[in-house]
């Protein structure tokens, strides 16, 4: 019931934003935009999407301190499986899916996997805010974008500070807390304490400059790659006359739109945000909507395809993994060694 309510709310939000993005569209003009597209540029876009997933895999592997139980290739596939589930299930289910899958194997279990996912998300939010701040001297941004960026930036900085504090005192704090919590039924279970300890230890990368610097470099490369994708898609739809700042602004606005609860794949808020960004460059609504829709659809379809490849390569069952993610609303607080990997219920039957 809870999942149905969540899905219903998400669909309602998506329909609202789609209406706002599509009202006033000239449908013959939209059709002509797609009919005359220069789709040869989709080849480098496809390759760049795959490359960015690879860079994300490198960053996640670094955050997990290159855990020997997970190869870089496996991490790459888990990244894409996460995108697959994000695009077809509500409530960012992909984050729970890849956290669960990584937690089965890494030495720190689910706690370590979850802590690295939190760091990833905060780094991505900060990246959007930094890009938006760089655009402020160049473009007069609407009030909602400035305020939204300031709010998310403040929240991300606070979150990063909290994780840094956890990294410095976390394990000791867990020991101190467990003097009282350990006496409680269920919550005081040793497995819960072990999971929280691993969560704190997973944030340790934030306290080591030598480990953090390559993480920051890969983050910059990821967002430079996204901006390049947006720019290449402008060539697809004959908008190459727009400045590079237009591609970056679309990236920022659509990035901010991802925090809006909506249907799987963020359909609706993404398109509305792209239209709002291009309107600042005097792009007519039909063309702006067509560009943003094309960008969104091609990106999501590519990530879904890569996610399917990931499922097949890892020998995982989509149906069983979906059941785990939706029924538990995320992974359970167990360590990966509670059940041998060879008896994993998610593996495909031979």
Number of helices: 13
Main pleated-sheet profile: none
Principal-axis shape equals globular
Q: Provide the low-confidence segments as ranges.
A: 330-350
* Count of beta strands: 0
Radius of gyration from the alpha-carbon trace, in angstroms: 21 Å
What structural category do the secondary elements indicate? mainly alpha
Portion in helices: over 70%
Encode the helix/strand succession as letters. Answer: HHHHHHHHHHHHH
Mean pLDDT: 86
The separation of the N and C termini measures 34 Å
Percentage of residues in DSSP E strands: under 5%
Give the count of structural domains.
1
Q: Your description of this structure?
A:
With 350 residues, the protein is an all-alpha fold. The chain has one domain. Helix 3 packs antiparallel against helix 9. The relative contact order is 0.17. The C terminus is likely disordered.
């Amino acid at each position: 019931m809870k999942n149905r309510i969540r899905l219903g709310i998400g669909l309602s939000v998506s329909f609202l934003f789609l209406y706002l993005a599509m009202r006033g569209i000239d449908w013959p003009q939209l059709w002509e935009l797609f009919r005359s597209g220069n789709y040869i540029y989709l080849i480098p876009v496809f390759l760049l999407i795959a490359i960015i997933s690879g860079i994300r895999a490198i960053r996640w592997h670094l955050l997990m301190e290159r855990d020997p139980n997970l190869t870089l290739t496996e991490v790459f596939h888990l990244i894409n499986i996460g995108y697959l589930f994000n695009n077809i299930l509500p409530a960012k289910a992909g984050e729970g899916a890849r956290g669960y899958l990584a937690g089965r194997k890494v030495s720190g279990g689910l706690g370590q996997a979850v802590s690295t996912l939190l760091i990833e998300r905060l780094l991505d939010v900060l990246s959007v805010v930094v890009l938006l701040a760089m655009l402020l001297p160049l473009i007069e941004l609407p009030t909602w974008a400035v305020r939204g960026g300031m709010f998310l930036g403040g929240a991300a900085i606070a979150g990063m500070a909290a994780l840094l504090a956890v990294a410095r005192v976390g394990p000791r704090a867990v020991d101190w807390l467990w003097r009282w919590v350990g006496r409680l039924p269920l919550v005081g279970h040793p497995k819960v304490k072990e999971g929280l300890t691993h969560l704190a230890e997973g944030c340790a990368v934030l306290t080591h400059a030598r480990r953090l610097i390559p993480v920051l470099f890969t983050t910059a490369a990821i967002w430079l790659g996204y901006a390049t994708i947006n720019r290449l898609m402008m060539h697809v739809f004959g908008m190459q006359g727009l400045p590079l700042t237009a591609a970056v602004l679309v990236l920022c606005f659509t990035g901010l739109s991802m925090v809006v609860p909506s249907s799987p794949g963020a359909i609706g808020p993404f398109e509305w945000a792209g239209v709002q960004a291009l309107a600042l460059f005097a792009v007519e609504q039909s063309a702006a909507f067509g560009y943003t829709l094309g960008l969104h659809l091609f990106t999501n379809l590519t990530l879904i395809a890569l996610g399917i490849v990931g499922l097949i390569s890892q020998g995982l069952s989509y149906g069983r993994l979906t059941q785990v993610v939706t029924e538990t609303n995320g992974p359970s607080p167990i360590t990966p060694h509670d059940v041998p990997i060879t008896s994993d219920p998610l593996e495909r039957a031979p």
